[in-house]
Amino acid sequence: MKKRLIALVLVTLMVLPLAACGKKEEVKDVDFYELRTKMLEAGENLPDMQTASSADDNAAELLGYVSDMDYEKVSNFFVSYSSEGLTDEIVVIAVKNEDDAKEAKESLEKHLTHRKNLFANYSPVEGAKLENAILRVVGRYVYLIIADDRNAIEKAFNEMVK
Amino acid sequence: MKSNGFKITCVVIVAVLLLAGVGTSICYSLKSYKAINEYVKEMHEKEEPEETQENDVTIAGSYKIRSTEAISDAYKSGDTSALDDKQKETLDMASKILDEIITDGMSDYEKEIAVYDWMCKNLANDSNLLVVIPAGSGDTDNPYGVLKYHNAVCVGYATTFRLFMQMMDIECMVIHNTECYHSWDLVKIDGDWYHTDIYSDVGRGQYAYFNMTDAMRSSQESWDTSYFPAATSMKRNKAMENIIECAGLSDIPGAIGQSIMDGNLSFVMKFSCEVNEEFARRAIAVIDIFSNAIDTISFPNGGGMWMNGYRWLPNDDGGFVLWVSVYKYGEEEDNSDALTEEERDEITSAIYEMINTIQEKLGGNGEGEGGIYDNPDGSDDGEFEDDNVDGVEDSDDSEGEDDSEGEE
């Protein structure tokens, strides 16, 4: 009886923290170059795109254009953007610790607001696309997709990461 | 004995759980305290907005408005000893341009137009402004880079225009909007201040953003009116040079259409009928419909146009005028050879018929008398008459109402 009770208490103690933390989303580690390629391929109507990524020498500086989060917390990222100054943009940030995903999302929200303000002042017609932007967190990944083919691009992301 | 052991075990477990609970509570409290502190600090910062100033303001997060008075002072005094090499080169470039475009005896207004024309013709908008990670073209926000590379962002246009004005002893300020996303100029001509935004006119409209009043500018932007001087005079506004005399509501569609075709994207309509509150509202309602229709215009290369602003403004003669500004983006392609002469005549005829129908609906006589649009070939064959009034109901009531309101 005593052993059973102790076992029950111990099991409860083990399970409680899991319940408190909630269920974490299972995601795969992916090759970022491949992820970027697949997502860009899915965007059939994307204009000419340039890419900056964690592979660049000045990666921390480049990420600073879209996110003000501490680069030490980032394990990988890429930013693909229209070289002609259109709104089209794909950003994926993988953080080292899943708890920092929220911070990454908030930083991309700020970036999106900045882009909306910029286009409202300089190119309102093109800026309309920003209203349909997709910004989501999946596990330790955060992604922002601004494109006509946003659903197809998001699907390509999910197929690789989930 | 067995019972005692069980009790001790239970007490230990409860004690451990309580300790864990207390520990967790302390951790969460500390975390919450930190978060609240940060929030309070953030709110405190938000409550104390920075004081408005003309210079040392960063626009769109990247471009800084800097004073260029050292250069204009050196131009006026002829003493360049206080300038660095970059400033000397800027002065040299700016002086050469003024020598080229300014002639003796020009008024301040004529000088302003000369500079505006030169800038609109010779400078181009830097597309880097909208690129997420801009390529390093540099110096697009100051006269040195603008005059050297002829590529500018809004701050570059504004500071370069101000430099020219200050070199000629014309008062000028660089003004920015409340959100710090755009900047343009306030220039004082013959004792009155006006808004001039060359960035928005380059490659688009002729003088659409030239010498605007506060009322006109506030259609597009907001700014700190307690800091920047008020611009209320219509005297040197370009739209006032494009006055279209209208008899009543029925002249509005033709006036707008003709002005756009003539390339006057900023113009005013002056009415010979009484402009009372009811008439003013009805006129705005007509332009609302036009505004929606113009939004649908698109050029084959992706360009188009929209109504940038329209409102009643007090005229310097004590009356009111209706100001309209149309914004055009992209370039129209020359498709003049795409239609045969016969097709062109037929379509032109149909369009005039349609406009006459609109005029009729608004209370005009629909036969061209006094209207802005007259069918150039004088024909009234009615070929397109029915086809072009689909969806527009003939309503005696509405005609009657408009007759009483819109015409003299």
What's the short story on this structure?
The complex is a heterodimer of chains A (162) and B (408). Chain A has 162 residues and is of the alpha+beta class. Chain A has helices at residues 2-21, 32-42, 59-63, 101-122, 124-127, 150-161; strands spanning 49-53, 74-82, 89-95, 134-138, 141-146.
Number of strands of chain B: 11
Give the class of chain B from helix and strand content and strand pairing: alpha+beta
- Return the CATH architecture of the largest domain in chain B: Roll
Q: What distance separates the N and C termini of chain A?
A: 44 Å
Largest interface: A-B, 28 and 21 residues
The CATH C-level name of the largest domain in chain B is Alpha Beta
Biggest sheet descriptor of chain B? 4 strands, mixed
Q: Count the domains of chain B.
A: 2
| Number of E-state strands of chain A | 5
In which order are the strands of the major sheet of chain B placed?
A: 8-9-11-10
Shape of chain A: elongated
SSE order of chain A, one letter for each helix or strand: HHEHEEHHEEH
**Termini distance of chain B?**
113 Å
Strand % of chain B is: 5-15%
Order of neighbouring strands in the sheet with most strands of chain A: 1-2-3-5-4
